Amino acid sequence: MPGIKPGVAVPLYDGVVRWTAPNPGFMTGEGTNAYILGTHKLTLIDPGPVIDSNIAALIDYCDGRLERVVVTHTHRDHCPAAMAIAGATGVPVYGSLPPSGEENDAGFLPDVMLQEGQRIVCDYLNMDVLHTPGHASNHYCFLVREASLLLTGDHIMNGSTVVIAAPDGNMAAYLRSLSRLQDMGFAAIGPGHGDLIHDPVENINGIIAHRLARERKVLSALQAVSPCTVDELLPHAYDDVDARLLPVARYSLCAHVEKLLDEGVIDEMDSRLQATP
Hints:
Layout: E1 9-13, E2 16-20, E3 33-37, E4 42-45, H1 52-62, E5 66-70, H2 81-89, E6 93-95, E7 112-113, E8 119-122, E9 125-131, E10 140-144, E11 149-153, H3 171-181, E12 188-191, H4 200-225, H5 230-237, H6 246-262, E13 266-269, E14 272-275
Parallel strand pairs: 4-5, 5-6, 6-7, 11-12
Antiparallel strand pairs: 1-2, 2-3, 3-4, 8-9, 9-10, 10-11, 13-14
Helix pairs in contact: 3-4, 4-5, 5-6
């Protein structure tokens, strides 16, 4: 395993390098992973937050070879450095306009809008663009065919589950986006946080199973304590989670509740939830 080394170019495959930003934390793990594709002409993916020393080091590493900057989504730990690097180098930025919400970089303005099915030629590598909403409505994954590598941003992370924060995050969309990846045949996942994942199908199946198991637990807890508010339901639906993590778990609980409401499995009246008969 190459291992996570913030501020260092870590070769993964021919023409694929990982560069981890020095922004470790509770939500970011050891830091946000950027990926650099190509040799003579470089494509930089998810350069991370605005940390001046890290931006300068990335520009220095690219050494005049940078052709474009691409972002998977506009959350603040992945996106803001893109505009700073583009401004310093004059290269175009590829991505999507930010949805509302303080978690997004409101100042992000792409030169090229990403589209499902688009192919971006990164020197001698071909990168296919896949729209994967769920964690964020404007989230994209990138399949690097020559390396059999899927770059997943925050769609899949190594070492933790992904927070799905409604209203922009959507649990039903997340599960659909995961399902479409199951049979694509790539050999590894390059996540936005954590090291390479070499058992992608097992990993994706495990995430789907985990989310569906949590949904069943939410329903079981609701049947026991309804009618109740989301905050009253939270400690019962997540009684297997450290109490210090409950404020974060609440985001995903709201996403599960939104999905179940849309499916008609539960009802809501006066902000109180209950299972349908």
